[in-house]
């Protein structure tokens, strides 16, 4: 047992869990061990590979049933899902949208696609998601209510929507955010791209906001190759989401009429076929990931100076992507850990570069980001494939 912190101790802890046989261990690999072949073959045999087909309908119904959302609309990827969620939440060009600085680029890109300005907010150490207390205090400071919503007194722009993100699959503290959004008249859209299969107080993430985006990219907990979905409990928004993502075509037996500028964002049937097969295996993936996380937690409990990220209280996380966080005392060790593990064939990665540091977003407004900055310095993602156990 190691009694002192060292990058070697971190490497050994990971090795004790993933049992390296000298092949490279990737950060996250999909597992395609179910009915994928059968369902995709069915698409090929029937010719229904593209934008309509029975797997799209089935996938949407299955997603709604699993998450408890009234409607699920399958789309080409999670970024497209976020784009449509933002439009439907009422974001128009010139608005500001509050998003965490600690997120994947897709959240900020989707805001930009709307002609809106991302406004970066801080996260909390416990959940790695938006810090409700800090956000409320910040809004007290900068927000001003006008007839058509909440305004940023400093920039003069309307703050239309908040997009919290459930980082690495760990549900953030969503309840206080619902209240903050109601108090300040801000719309709530969840970026649940990483948290499919994660629950907050028994309810699926992505069912708290007016709308939410899921992703089924190749590196997510389950995959459709590329894909995503929009969740909503609002029938009218669900109808609009389907309409907007299918070129806003007015249904007719032969005529081509469109009543607004829509998007070609629908998920092809062949991808939905993969999704149906993956969804059948989701509970097995979740069990494997929980077991893997349990083993990591055990291994890292013996490494001083390192915290293995566990699910927050009241939550059930999908443990999509595991992470360790170094104590402040060892904050300069991150790069050495990345070096030692990757050289040993174990793929590890740092967290994303914070959004306000990227060249296209340096001029965007942001609050004090102390915790996000500290987290990025100290966080390392470690191998998390469901196939590792
Ligand atoms: C994966 C991801 C998305 C969406 O990604 P796509 O690759 O477009 O499906 C959005 N937000 C976050 C935080 C993600 O991790």
Please specify the SSE layout and strand pairing.
Elements: H1 7-18, H2 36-46, H3 54-67, E1 71-75, H4 78-88, E2 96-100, H5 105-113, E3 117-121, H6 132-142, E4 143-146, E5 149-152, E6 158-162, H7 174-184, E7 187-191, E8 199-200, E9 203-204, E10 211-215, E11 228-232, H8 235-245, H9 269-280, H10 282-300, E12 306-308, E13 315-316, E14 322-326, H11 334-343, E15 349-350, H12 370-378, E16 379-382
Parallel strand pairs: 2-3, 2-6, 6-7, 7-10
Antiparallel strand pairs: 1-11, 4-5, 5-6, 8-9, 8-13, 10-11, 12-14, 14-16, 15-16
Helix pairs in contact: 1-10, 1-11, 2-9, 3-9, 4-5, 6-7
The structure holds pyridoxal-5'-phosphate.
Pyridoxal-5'-phosphate is lined by residues 77-79, 103-104, 106-107, 165, 191, 193-194, 215, 217, 228.
Main beta sheet strand tally, sense and closure: 9 strands, mixed
Backbone shape: globular
SSE arrangement, N to C: HHHEHEHEHEEEHEEEEEHHHEEEHEHE
Heteromolecules bound: pyridoxal-5'-phosphate
General description of the model:
By secondary structure, the protein is an alpha+beta fold. The chain has helices at 7-18, 36-46, 54-67, 78-88, 105-113, 132-142, 174-184, 235-245, 269-280, 282-300, 334-343, 370-378; strands at 71-75, 96-100, 117-121, 143-146, 149-152, 158-162, 187-191, 199-200, 203-204, 211-215, 228-232, 306-308, 315-316, 322-326, 349-350, 379-382. The strands form three sheets. Strands 1, 2, 3, 4, 5, 6, 7, 10 and 11 form a nine-stranded mixed β-sheet that branches. The protein has a four-stranded antiparallel β-sheet with strand order 12-14-16-15. A three-stranded antiparallel β-sheet has the order 9-8-13, with no helix packed on it. α1 (7-18) runs antiparallel to α10, α3 runs parallel beside α9 and α6 (132-142) packs parallel to α7. The longest helix has 19 residues, at 282-300. The radius of gyration is 21 Å and the shape is globular. The model has no long low-confidence stretch (mean pLDDT 96). The structure holds pyridoxal-5'-phosphate. Residues 77-79, 103-104, 106-107, 165, 191, 193-194, 215, 217, 228 line the site of pyridoxal-5'-phosphate.
């Amino acid at each position: 047992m190691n009694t002192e912190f060292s990058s070697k101790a971190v490497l050994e802890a990971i090795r004790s869990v993933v049992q390296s046989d000298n092949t490279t261990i990737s950060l996250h690999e999909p597992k395609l061990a179910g009915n994928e072949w059968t369902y995709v073959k069915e698409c090929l045999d029937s010719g229904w590979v593209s934008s309509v087909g029975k797997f799209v309908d089935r996938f949407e119904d299955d997603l709604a049933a699993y998450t408890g959302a009234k409607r699920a609309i399958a789309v080409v990827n999670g970024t497209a899902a976020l784009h449509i969620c933002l439009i439907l939440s009422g974001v128009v060009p010139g608005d500001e949208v509050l998003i965490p600085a600690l997120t994947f680029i897709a959240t900020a890109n989707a805001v930009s696609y709307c002609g809106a300005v991302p406004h970066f907010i801080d996260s909390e150490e416990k959940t790695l998601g938006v810090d409700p207390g800090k956000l409320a205090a910040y809004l007290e400071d900068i927000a001003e209510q006008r007839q058509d919503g909440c305004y940023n007194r400093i920039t003069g722009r309307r703050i239309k929507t908040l997009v919290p993100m459930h980082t690495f699959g760990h549900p953030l503290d969503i309840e206080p955010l619902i209240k903050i959004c109601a108090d300040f008249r801000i719309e709530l859209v969840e970026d649940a791209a990483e948290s499919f299969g994660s629950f907050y107080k028994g309810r699926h993430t992505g069912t708290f906001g007016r709308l939410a985006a899921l992703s089924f990219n190749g590196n997510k907990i389950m995959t459709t190759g590329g894909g995503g979905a929009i969740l909503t409990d609002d029938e009218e928004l669900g109808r609009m989401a389907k309409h907007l993502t299918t070129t806003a075509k007015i249904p007719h037996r032969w005529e081509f009429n469109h009543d607004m500028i829509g998007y070609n964002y629908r998920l092809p049937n062949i991808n939905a076929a993969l999704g149906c097969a993956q969804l059948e295996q989701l509970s097995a993936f979740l069990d494997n990931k929980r077991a893997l996380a349990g083993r990591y937690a055990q291994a890292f409990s013996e490494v001083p100076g390192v915290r293995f990220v566990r699910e927050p209280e009241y939550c059930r996380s999908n443990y999509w992507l595991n992470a360790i966080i170094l104590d402040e005392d060892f904050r300069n060790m991150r790069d050495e850990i990345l070096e030692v593990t990757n050289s040993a064939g174990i793929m590890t990665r740092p967290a994303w570069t914070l959004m306000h540091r990227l060249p296209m977003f340096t001029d965007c407004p942001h609050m004090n980001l102390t915790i996000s900055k500290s987290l990025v310095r100290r966080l390392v993602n470690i191998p998390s494939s469901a196939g590792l156990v």
